[in-house]
Amino acid sequence: MLAMDQMIDLNADLGEGFGRWQLTDDEALLASVSSANIACGFHAGDPATMRRVCALAAERGVRIGAQVSYRDLAGFGRRSMDVPAAELAAEVAYQIGALEIFARAAGSAVAYVKPHGALYNRTVRDEEQAAAVVEGVRLAGSGVGAGSAPGSGSKGPLPVLGLPGSRLLAAAAEAGLPTVEEAFADRAYRPDGTLVPRSEAGAVVTDPEQVIKRSVRLARDGEVVATDGRALTMRARSLCVHGDTPDAARLARRVREELTSAGVRIRAFA
């Protein structure tokens, strides 16, 4: 068991709307999380939504992260696509840059990058796609980042948030980017430490009590139970609670409360 003063970041996907349609309860989620993965317009989100959520996050002291995706509004970014590496790198940089405009307008800055959906899963094993995402982060990172907002200190490379053991984090480390290992409170894990695809039954943990128990075990003990019943070591600096699950805001609040009660402090990694 880890020390009782263990700290962890709590993140959620926000800004996942488009026009009049809104999927996530952004205001309520921002009361619980320390980092906000904000959709950048490719799988969800639009300029007005991005501006609004950045302003809310900055007002509450929540770190702003760019959640980059394949260009797939119709499929919510959950369809894998064969995008040429140079094109993908440019699209990743484009999304980060777009969010940075609104983050700066709110007096903040993009503090990290996290791929969404199919891009996240693809970069677990696909070296070319992982390298393209990293190149996009590097391309955008010369002008953005947690240190580029007024009064926030010196500039630095943007951290990349991803699955432990993924090609994405390996490529980011090789490129000199900070890496942050992430765990999921509400997703099922295979014995090899990868996520169960959403196309398979049981991929998402829907029982709130189970999500809470898993959250505490991940944060305090560094473990998660895989689908075959074995305990996997999962040392993560950030814990994700999906914003599009039913009653997500209430669940995020309960997760935060239980983590605090278990002696785990919630603190942004960026």
From TrEMBL:
Source species, domain of life: Bacteria
EC number: 3.5.2.9
Keyword ATP-binding carried by entry: yes
Catalytic activity: 5-oxo-L-proline + ATP + 2 H2O = L-glutamate + ADP + phosphate + H(+)
A Pfam family the protein falls into: LamB_YcsF
InterPro entries: Glyco_hydro/deAcase_b/a-brl, LamB/YcsF/PxpA-like
Keywords: ATP-binding, Hydrolase, Nucleotide-binding
Function: Catalyzes the cleavage of 5-oxoproline to form L-glutamate coupled to the hydrolysis of ATP to ADP and inorganic phosphate.
Subunit structure: Forms a complex composed of PxpA, PxpB and PxpC.
Family of the protein in this entry: Belongs to the LamB/PxpA family.
Record PANTHER family: 5-OXOPROLINASE SUBUNIT A, UNCHARACTERIZED PROTEIN YBGL-RELATED
Name by which UniProt lists this protein: 5-oxoprolinase subunit A
Gene it is expressed from: pxpA
